[in-house]
Design a protein that fits this description.
Elements lengths: L2 E5 L2 E4 L4 E8 L7 E7 L6 E6 L7 E2 L7 E6 L4 E6 L8 E8 L2 H7 L6 E2 L3 E6 L1
């Protein structure tokens, strides 16, 4: 089993920044694609970003392009989501997820990541 623990959420004003971290343990994380999902109250969970195991070109949902940056540090088994210029519509619970086919899942919308964290709350005030 791969255990994922998110941290870094909080309350921030619009225009501010936060960096989320996802610490992985239990299995070698190098072989997994890592994704970030978010769920706002009353809305479905949506895939925000994903970084492949190779560390190659990441995926971003259109609404966060140019504002969010995903990265990974395999030596620390940690994935990050740097979020800049935050907007109230970015509010939600952010989940880290891992799967060996993560890029396919998040870009097609078919399938479900095998491993999930518990989530961290991000609240952006206007």
């Amino acid at each position: 089993q791969l255990q994922l623990v998110e941290s870094g959420g909080g309350l921030v004003q619009a225009g501010g920044s936060l960096t989320l971290s996802c610490a992985a343990s239990g299995l070698t994380s190098d072989y997994f694609d890592f994704g970030w999902y978010r769920q706002a109250p009353g809305k479905e969970r949506e895939g925000v970003s994903c970084i492949p195991s190779s560390g190659g070109n990441p995926y971003y949902i259109d609404s966060v392009k140019g504002r969010f940056t995903i990265s990974r540090d395999n030596a620390k088994s940690t994935v990050y989501l740097q979020m800049n210029d935050l907007k109230p519509e970015d509010t939600g619970v952010y989940y880290c997820a891992a799967d060996q086919r993560g890029m396919d899942i998040i870009t097609t919308g078919y399938g479900w990541f095998d491993f999930w964290g518990q989530g961290t709350q991000v609240t952006v005030s206007s």
